[in-house]
Design goal:
- 13% of the residues lie in helices and 34% in strands.
- The relative contact order is 0.10.
- By secondary structure, it is mainly β.
- It has three domains: 23-103, Immunoglobulin-like (Sandwich), CATH 2.60.40.10; 108-187, Immunoglobulin-like, CATH 2.60.40; 190-418, paralog of FGE (formylglycine-generating enzyme), CATH 3.90.1580.10.
- It has five helices and 27 strands.
């Protein structure tokens, strides 16, 4: 009897072991998983009549075991290298099934990584293919970039410089990056003048120091700035910058300036020489450039219809918007290196005085529409103060005169254009 009981127990144990090791019923819905480079997960269904568990080794892989499935989660693959691992499904320490996991590396493909455009600028669409989300870095102020669906949209603005400019845009996804190089040609000298539109408006021209409660009172005003009178101005355009030595040299073939530098304002030019320059400019450009009238100059200096009421063009503190005697270190400076005024115009207070088109004449108290100055005279008006003058001569209303055949190392000009 004891022998029979022992035999029955042994048979039961053998049958149990045989079922665990040889007759386990385990099925896996997928034996291979492929992931994109981005963080994501997939689910694998597992059917079994035995207790099972998972084993894997990759740190970029996470497996969450649930009752009848596993959730396979991968981190983002920020490199170009494809990576692999194997998930082992075990029962009682014995491997019953394997799931191969593959995650692709990041790929970026740019259809055109070198873009060339002319000085006029254009809109360019660049297809970009990637198996992961990508971003871009653009530090080029002259090129606007926007991400579209599978592409990068570039808006390259007009190049007013006579010098070629080159910029890059970086396309990145994780540790993977590529660059787009943008090359824009320089323009012809007669296309290099960036103009600011000034809308029609009215303002009080001049200044006075006799009545503190009166219009345009300024304790520093000179008699030549009175009487204050109302002026209506038609729409026009005026140079964003003073005309530079590079522009003058390209047209005239010589540089008369005392302080020389390509992007410094041209100076030491007479009103008559300026007319020669403008004549050549109009012949080459087909436009009708001219010097601004004195009224147009003051209206623009004050900010036009956006006037901020400052004494100087762009700020109540001259040092912020202009180069003058106290901060110039006895020289002109590159145009546009101080603050602009409300219209985006630079250097109308300081750097160099600027020729206007008008013959000098004393103001009339009557209101005027688009005044052009005296009908004749012996002296031409110039405005704006300079690197040699004190602050009082850099005020928006300050007037100065010179003979049209005279030049000075602090006297230049900016252009105007009838709209």
């Amino acid at each position: 009897m004891k022998k029979l009981v022992f035999f029955m127990i042994a048979l039961a144990v053998f049958a149990s072991c045989s079922k665990d090791d040889d007759d386990i019923n385990l099925s896996v819905s997928q034996s291979e998983l492929t992931f994109t480079p981005e963080e994501s997960e997939q689910v694998v269904n597992i059917t079994s009549d035995a207790n099972w568990s998972c084993e894997y080794s990759a740190e970029w892989l996470l497996v969450r075991q649930q009752q009848n499935r596993i959730r396979v989660i991968v981190d983002a693959n920020t490199s170009t290298t494809q990576r692999f691992d194997v998930i082992k499904i075990t029962v009682n320490g014995s491997v019953q099934s394997e799931i191969k996991v593959t995650q692709n590396g990041t790929e970026i493909s740019i259809e055109n990584s070198s873009v060339t455009t002319d000085s006029k600028g254009e809109t360019i669409s660049i297809p970009i293919q990637s198996n992961a989300q990508w971003t871009f870095e653009n530090e080029n102020e002259w090129c606007d970039a926007q991400k579209g669906d599978g592409k990068l949209e570039l808006v390259v603005t007009r190049n007013y410089s006579m010098v070629e400019r080159v910029g890059t845009i970086k396309i990145s996804s994780g540790e993977v990056s590529q660059s787009i190089t943008i090359t824009q040609s320089g323009c012809q000298w007669f296309e290099s003048f960036e103009m600011i539109d000034v809308e029609a408006g009215s303002f009080y021209m001049g200044a006075q120091k006799t009545t503190s409660s009166g219009q345009n009172y300024d304790a520093s005003a000179y008699q030549i700035e009175s009487p204050v009178h109302e002026v209506s101005i038609h729409s026009y355009s005026i140079g964003k910058f003073e005309v530079t030595q590079a522009q003058w040299m390209a047209a005239m073939g010589r540089n008369p300036s005392t302080n020389q530098g390509a992007n410094l304002p041209v100076e030491n030019v007479t009103w008559e020489e300026v007319q020669e320059f403008i004549s050549l400019l109009n012949e080459e450009s087909g436009l009708n450039y001219r010097l601004p009238s004195e009224a147009e100059w003051e209206f623009a200096a004050k900010g036009g219809n956006m006037s901020d009421g400052y004494k100087y063009s762009g700020n109540s503190v001259l040092g912020a918007c202009g180069w003058y005697y106290s901060n110039s270190e006895a020289s002109t400076h590159e145009v546009g290196s101080k603050e602009a005024n409300a219209l985006g115009i630079y250097d109308m207070s300081g750097n160099v005085r600027e020729w206007c088109n008008d013959w000098f004449g004393y103001y009339d108290s009557s209101s005027a529409e688009n005044p052009q100055g005296a009908s004749d005279g012996s002296m031409k008006v110039n405005r704006g103060g300079s690197w040699t003058t004190p602050a009082v001569n850099c005020r928006n209303t300050y007037r100065h005169t010179d003979y049209p055949y005279e030049s000075a190392q602090d006297l230049g000009f900016r252009l105007a254009l009838t709209k």
